[in-house]
Amino acid sequence: MISIEWLGVATFRLTIGDMVVLLDTYMDREPGAPQTGISTSDIDRADFILVGHSHFDHLGGCDRVARNTGATIIGSHETVRLMRDLEIPEEQCVAVAGGERYRLSEDVLVTIFPSQHSCIWATTKGADEICLGEQGMTLQDRNAVLQRRFARRQGDQSDAARIISAYPRPRGEGGPLAYLIDTPEGRIFWKDTSGHWTGILRDIRPDVALLAAAGRGNIDGEPIQGSLSQFMAREVDLLRPRRVVLSHHDDYLPTPSPRKHADTVDPVRAELARQHPGVELVDLAYLEPFAPLGGLR
Questions:
Q1: Under 8 Å CB-to-CB from 267, ≥6 apart: which residues?
Q2: Of 6, 16, 34, 161, which is most buried with the most CB atoms under 10 A?
Q3: Residues in a beta bridge with 60
Q4: Can you tell me the distance from the alpha carbon of 90 to that of 112, in angstroms, rounded to the nearest whole number?
Q5: pLDDT tens digit string along 94-128?
Q6: pLDDT digits (tens, 9 = 90+) for 148-195
Q7: What is the pLDDT of residue 161?
Q8: Region 268-289: what's the mean pLDDT?
Q9: CA–CA distance from 233 to each of 21, 72, 227, 237, 268 (Å)?
Q10: To 5 degrees, how large is the angle CA 221–CA 237–CA 279?
Q11: Angle between helix 228-239 and helix 261-275 axes, rounded to 10 deg
């Protein structure tokens, strides 16, 4: 029996028989933020942790879960560096860059792929709003945009700023990764940010895709010239899954204007229905057990 539970942002708990695999580990919420009903202290069992990238809202809490459970962490070299700095034993850390295959059990194999982070340096609008331009920017250009944003936030005393500053600062996003998990019941693909390499995604044929729906989509290093919902439809066109489960569309920080699920889910659902009517879209509630491969065979 295979089941998943969404624990907030792009974090899932995947149970395959007797094995528990966490996909990211960010689930601890401050009192002022919407709660998921679970925290890292509640995780008393995990065999493996797969980390998509090293930003706090994905890697946060990984060290605590690893200490509590003894789980093996699989992630980028930056993820492993941060975990070693937090004194997680070397034998619990597996550094990958994409292109590796790792056996989780006798009948479960994970293949790791290099991926792309969403274009955080570029303009972002609502899920159904078109974004144009900002192509061809050098790394220096992109970093300058991010540095200006950071400078404006200096002295920010908001709860969100305090939470972010409490986590170790990674070098960028650490090199995003995507994972294809082959199980006895079928193939599950997971990535935790809105970006991809076209040449990689088009050769993967999962039964189910767990996809992040947030920010400005990144296609081969450039921001999508279109909307987030169009970006999601493009990913579905490349992957051709039979079922899509959304993530990263929730509000996870204390903010004056909370982001609503429907603001992302409804436009994405409409775009997928228009372009890929045969694909089932699943929007889970927190901690709702779901059989991702159920009924597909």
A1: 126, 127, 128, 227, 228, 229
A2: 6
A3: none
A4: 20
A5: 999 999 999 999 999 999 999 999 999 999 999 99
A6: 877 676 655 555 555 666 666 777 788 999 999 999 999 999 999 999
A7: 58
A8: 96
A9: 27, 33, 10, 6, 8
A10: 135
A11: 50
